[in-house]
Design brief:
Blueprint lengths: L8 H16 L20 E4 L7 E4 L2 H11 L4 E9 L3 H11 L17 E8 L5 E4 L3
Antiparallel strand pairs: 1-2, 3-4, 4-5
Amino acid sequence: MKKRVDVTEQIRDGWVNKWKKKNAQGNGYYSFLTTQDVKSEGSKNRSPDFEQPHRDRNFLSLNESFYYLILLFDPRITTIKEQYPLLEVEKTQFIAKELGLKHPTYPYSRGVPTVITSDFVCDTIYRKKNCILSKR
């Protein structure tokens, strides 16, 4: 995903399928976006995962990495997934339209809708419900 110029829907859907296959292997969770995928003027970082050896966590801001530490030591949280895609794109487009918002598109792509990600999706001990957390 490093090259995000001339993105087409086919390329975007290929990224989604690759992410789905990687996570279906059962070797832990892999972020949809990595620090190499996103251009940033801020402080993004990749940190080792304390629970799964040989795996890194991808944080796109300093606040995100600090918030991960808060979640990590919260006894109610059982799993943390960062840069989690909110799929399907058609659903996020519908939600944006209903809210009167413009859905984001990839730059230099002729209007291809972006896969929106949440900073964190967590499972909790309370009925194993998902909890989506975002700094926005």
